[in-house]
Structures are given as C-alpha cells and as structure tokens.
Design brief:
The chain is of the alpha/beta class. It contains seven helices and six strands.
Length: about 170
C-alpha cells in the first residue's frame, strides 16, 4: 500500500490480474467502482469523470476500449493514440487503481465478471441510456452518472486541433 492508500501494484493490468486483485480487495472489505471509455485525447471532462467515480468506492477500475472498438465507435481517424498509451495515461490519475484494456463493443462482459458495486458513466448518459445498465442490475449493482455537465468532448477537441491554422513558420 502506498502513502496515498493505493495498492502498491496499481496500474495497467490484464483481465486475469484485475479479477485477482478485485477478489483480494473484496476479501479485505473494499468496495469497487468501475468506469469505462475510450479516453482517446484526455481532457478535463475525463478528469472530473474519474474523480467522481473514485469518490463512490474504495477502489476504481477503469476499462479502456481497445483500438478496434474505438475505431468502430468513433469512426475514421480514431483512435488518435494507441490503447496501451491511453491506458498508461489513465493509470497515471491518482484516483485510478486498476486499468484494463478491453476489446468488446460495450463493457457488459467485463462488468459481469467484476461485478463492481457501482458502474459509473459520464454526463453524456442518463441512467436509462447506459448500454450496460441491465447487466449491472442483474447482479445487484447500481449505475451512477458522475462528472460535470457535458461541456467537454474529445470529438470537438480533435476537430479544433485538426482545423487550427498552422502556426509553424
């Protein structure tokens, strides 16, 4: 355990390692929150989302979409960064305990395996529009919307970067 209360081996883990660590956390009486997303170009909305999710449990698991699922969800030109890089960046947040990369279209399968106490989604959803809500309900978990209002978007940020005039001379 570190001085900040995070597990000493926090960071990017495999699915098998994640399940092992969550089992140990549960055996120690800790609660688990779960957040997921693409995290392609990090912005303040992501930071607020992760901080809000972490506040709801003792441990925060973040599932990061792999490159193929980001391309399918977001379209041409995405992801901007490789999954391993995105996962490492997310793991750098103090609020995050474990990061796992997943290949599925939604996090439903992973949620069913981990069974976190709370599944957190950002403010671009309502509890009724979260794709995995039925999976979470089925095992007795709860779904919570966290983060500030939807005023930040990776799509908008990428568009601004790509269309900005070239300042190099």
């Amino acid at each position: 355990m570190t001085a900040a209360g995070r597990p000493a081996a926090a960071g990017v883990v495999t699915e098998a390692e994640l399940l092992e660590r969550v089992r140990a956390d549960r055996a120690a009486g800790r609660t688990i929150a779960f957040a997921n997303g693409c995290f392609d170009v990090l912005h303040v909305g992501h930071a607020r989302y992760l901080a809000g999710a972490a506040a709801l449990a003792d441990r925060l698991v973040v599932a990061v979409n792999d490159d193929a699922s980001v391309a399918a969800l977001k379209g041409p030109g995405r992801p901007v960064q490789a999954a391993a890089d995105r996962a490492e960046l997310v793991a750098g947040f103090a609020a995050v305990d474990y990061v796992v990369v997943f290949a599925d279209a939604t996090a439903g399968r992973l949620l069913a395996l981990v069974e976190p106490d709370v599944h957190c989604k950002g403010p671009d959803y309502t509890v009724d529009t979260v794709p995995e809500r039925d999976v979470v309900r089925a095992y007795g978990g709860r779904t919570v919307i966290v983060g500030a209002g939807k005023t930040h978007s990776t799509r908008d940020l990428v568009t601004r970067i790509r269309t900005a005039p070239d300042q190099a001379r």
